[in-house]
Amino acid sequence: MYEFLSHAELFDGLNGDGLRQLAVIGRRRSLAAGEYAFLLGDRADDLYLVSEGQVDLCFPMALGGIVKDITVESVGPGKALGWSALVRPYRFTLAARATEPSEVVSFPRPELLQVFDAAPEVGYRFVIKLAEVVGFRLLTFQALWVRELQRAVLAETQHRANRG
Amino acid sequence: MKPERVLLLGWREDTNMEATIVLVLVFTFLVGGMTLALAMGYRSIEESRSEQRPERHVQPAPAAYVMAGHGFFERAADRTPAPPAIAFDDALLAQLERHVRAEQAAVSQFVHFPSVDSLYSSSGTSLRVH
Q1: From A18, A103, B60, B113, which residue has the greatest number of CB atoms within 10 Å?
Q2: Is the pTM of this model over 0.90?
């Protein structure tokens, strides 16, 4: 566990003591291929790190009365899942589904916060990394939205030109 | 002489104490009764109001209908709550996932080095259904 955590993106830069405290509270969980770690809207009480395999982050797309999961990001070993567990309103905003037999390590929020309370420097470094992960996600979706909006504007302009 | 005064004063204090207790009990009973009467009155008013109020039925909106909200460029003629004409088959799903992945790859440069050029770099895919 200690060795794995030392290479995890969220715990990058933590010293041995901090990692040891986090290793104590981490719980391994196996996921079968196709199994969901969590669904959009579920209570987010645990932060996850993928330790083996691959987990897809998906959003539900509804068309013609059918809802399908669309993969927006594939997360591999060392990467974090479910940072909503540390941000209000503590609800997952995407679903996480294993694409192959996988293993994740979960960190319950209360225990994680206890570690941060006891060792503020661990919490500080963790929050810096967490802000980076959240910021990347925000930028990605911002860019995706702007690009789709630009396409909509171009399509409308073309439509009006064809009509006129 | 002195012990008698003490006894007399003691008797008076006991009587005063008893009277105070009786007064407090009477006051508590009165206040409690008034509060109960107010609560019962409020409840009966609310019940009569709810009987007069027309019932409101809320229909849960299906997800597909919610997502078919009005777009910025949508024309008035398009504003009908008809279900989408396209079927959500595996081919469309695969196309959608390919598009999202290609777009993700295209914006990854923007995420690390934000600029107008990296924001609008081509991904070579389109979601247009012909």
Answers
A1: A18
A2: no
Strands (E) in chain A, as ranges, are 27-31, 36-38, 46-52, 55-63, 66-75, 80-81, 95-98, 102-108
Whether A81 contacts A49, CB under 8 Å: yes
Please tell me whether the interface predicted TM-score (ipTM) of this complex is above 0.95.
no
Residues A125-162: pLDDT tens digits?
999 999 998 999 899 999 999 998 998 898 888 888 88
Say whether B88 and A66 touch across the interface (CB within 8 A): yes
Q: Best mutation site among A61, A66, A149, A154 for testing chain B: the one with the most B CBs within 10 Å? A: A61
Query: Is B83's CB within 8 Å of A68's CB?
Result: no
Residue A80, burial from CB neighbour count under 10 angstroms (0-12, 13-18, 19+): buried
Q: Assess contact for B111 and B127: CB atoms under 8 A.
A: no
Using CB atoms, pick whichever of B86, B93, B114 lies closest to residue A68: B93
Interface check B77 vs A, CB under 8 A: no
Angle between helices B90-112 and A120-163 (to 10 degrees): 120
Say whether A72 and B62 touch across the interface (CB within 8 A): no
Q: Does residue B53 carry a pLDDT above 50?
A: no
Percentage of chain A beyond pLDDT 90 is 65
